[in-house]
Design brief:
4 helices, alpha+beta, 48% strand, six-stranded antiparallel sheet, two-stranded antiparallel ribbon
Length: 216
């Protein structure tokens, strides 16, 4: 038996359905993607800057497209590597921070917003086929991902107590160091995204039979 390719048209069809939601998988609306909490730490010691972003609400993910797809298949394992492109993601969250930032005491709270353009993601999936009621399905074994962002524009507003000096200082620092801040956020953000993606892929594999993905 020769296992050839993951059906790319099936992937594209599912991505188009994302924009309408997938109620059969428990996703009546795919967007927004919500992450409960993300952290960032800059510097060490008692004056190090720490920020917590809660209820991160992201939109734009449903516009993703598969720009690269590689598959390594055998009778007992499927490995997939997908390259994804997302034109723009818009995010909003509540933030709380403490510590010192650019010589300014930056303890406070308020609203965070961000626009991330040119998002590229690489996703690795390892799964095993299994049989259920005379049909074959895939069971997720491992999912890893990494991502990059070409352009970032973000800031804070409605800072607690109306501290305009703090708000201006934070926004200046954030936009002058956006890629460095993303690098610091990445481990926590990536871990949260892997959790969300793994849950989605598990449900997808449980609903879509193996032969809908693979051409034999």
């Amino acid at each position: 038996m020769s296992l050839e390719v993951l059906a790319p048209k099936r992937v594209e069809m599912l991505l188009e359905e994302l924009e309408l939601g997938l109620p059969q998988l428990g996703y009546p609306e795919v967007e927004p993607i919500i992450l409960d909490e993300v952290h960032i730490t800059l510097g060490a010691g008692p004056d190090g800057y720490k920020a917590q972003f809660k209820d991160v609400n992201a939109k734009g993910v449903s516009a993703l497209r598969v720009t690269g797809l590689r598959a390594r298949l055998s009778d007992d394992e499927v490995q997939l590597q997908l390259i994804l492109s997302i034109p723009r993601i818009r995010a909003a969250a509540k933030y709380r921070s403490s510590g010192t930032l650019i010589l300014v005491q930056a303890s406070g709270a308020g609203d965070y917003w961000g626009e991330y353009e040119g998002v590229k993601a690489k996703v690795f999936i390892r799964a095993k086929p299994f049989s259920y009621q005379d049909r074959r399905y895939l069971r997720l074994q491992q999912l890893k991902m990494d991502f990059s962002v070409k352009d970032i524009n973000m800031g804070v507003e409605n800072v607690h107590d109306g501290n305009t000096i703090l708000q201006a200082a934070l926004n200046l620092f954030i936009n002058s160091n956006s890629q460095e801040l993303l690098k610091e956020m990445k481990p926590d953000l990536r871990r949260k995204l892997v959790q969300v993606m793994s849950s989605f892929v598990e449900k997808l594999f449980a609903q879509v039979p193996y032969d809908a993905w693979i051409t034999e």
